[in-house]
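Action item from last meeting closed. Structure (198 res):
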């Protein structure tokens, strides 16, 4: 089993709270026998648009090939102004052609995949983001199994916080390990069940 995590941090380098929470969660994926790859969207030349290939220099087609081969698709995003990041929104827009193909009666390129959502922030907004991404998953044929979201809303995520990666990981282990384990198990169980019924 393989998971692709689309990391929507706005930071091209340096400490990213969302990347740190994703790294924490990936330990739980490994315990379920799931390999993973994190794609830091901001470091790729993803052209704006609503098609799977926007032409010369566009990095999205190569990313899409990895997604098609994976069993699990996870969005990992910070909260900015009560919504997911602009990097995450750009990725969602690039899947629009798949929704058009479904409307034309074709099978989704994302059929049979499980979806997951990881969110960091220092204030509320997670439920709004989960609702929006869940609607997107539904529209393109990705299944969000029960309990497959992980939201860490803590004041240490505030912009300018001087908390270290080690301190964040310790806090996640203390407060979010059970939620992360339930999410990883839910994703693994969905993929195993889907495979057994084919």
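Sequence:
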């Amino acid at each position: 089993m393989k998971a692709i995590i689309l990391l929507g941090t706005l930071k091209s380098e340096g400490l990213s709270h969302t990347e740190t929470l994703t790294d924490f969660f990936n330990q739980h994926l490994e315990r379920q026998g799931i390999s993973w790859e994190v794609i830091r969207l901001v470091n790729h030349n993803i052209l704006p648009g609503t098609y799977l290939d926007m032409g010369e220099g566009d990095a999205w087609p190569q990313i899409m090939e990895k997604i098609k081969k994976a069993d699990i698709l996870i969005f990992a995003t910070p909260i900015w102004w009560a919504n997911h990041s602009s990097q995450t929104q750009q990725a969602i827009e690039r899947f629009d052609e798949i929704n058009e193909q479904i409307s034309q009666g074709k099978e989704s390129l994302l059929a049979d995949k499980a979806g997951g959502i990881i969110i960091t922030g220092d204030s509320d907004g997670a439920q709004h983001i989960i609702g929006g991404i869940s609607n997107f998953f539904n529209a393109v044929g990705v299944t969000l199994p029960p309990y497959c979201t992980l939201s860490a809303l803590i004041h240490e995520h505030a912009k300018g916080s001087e908390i270290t990666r080690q301190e964040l990981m310790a806090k996640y282990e203390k407060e979010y390990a059970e939620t992360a384990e339930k999410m990883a198990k839910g994703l693994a169980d969905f993929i195993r069940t889907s495979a057994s019924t084919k």
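Note appended to the action item: The chain has one domain: 2-196.
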